[in-house]
Amino acid sequence: MADLLWDDVKYFFDPDTMGALPDVRVPDVSVEGWQAVLDLVAERGWKSQYSEGETVLPVPRAEVVLSRPVDAECPNLRVWPTADVLAIFRFLDDEVIDFDVDLRELQGQDRLDALCGFLREIGRRLGRPVLMDGEGAYGHPILGFDVETDRVVLLMEP
After folding, report:
1. Which of 64, 77, 80, 119 is 20 to 30 Å from 24 at the Cα level?
2. DSSP 8-state code for residue 20
3. How many Cα atoms sit within 13 Å of 98 on the Cβ side?
4. Of all helices (H) and strands (E), which one includes residue 9?
5. String of DSSP letters for 76-116
6. What is the torsional sign of CA 85, 90, 94, 95?
7. CA 67 to CA 131: how far, in whole Å?
């Protein structure tokens, strides 16, 4: 059974209403949490690409990425949990795992299920909630992985 039904949440997936790039985050983590996500990507065999600026590099350990100089370019990790869904992780903070998804890619039940599965995998691995805020609405989650129910739930009414 699906965590969420498209007809119940499609309002929140309208790029014109919510912004095309909502922020997804896992608060209150550590370098070890970041490393757990990097390990999960490798274990699941999800296609990924790590880059610093325009330079594509092998994925380093989390402590290496997060200890870069303050003035260094922000690295990112592109992860495709499915061929049609991209998440872009940005290594901005060692206490918050932060990534973007593109609502234009997340239209329909199949893509929603792929997103929910991805959030669930991350949340289970970390034992933490994974929250999605509308673009520019940081701190006001729309939906998220709930650790207690072990599923992605709607956190806001349409």
Report:
1. 64
2. S
3. 16
4. helix 6-9
5. EEEEEEETTEEEEEE---SS-EEEEE-GGG--SHHHHHHHH
6. negative
7. 25
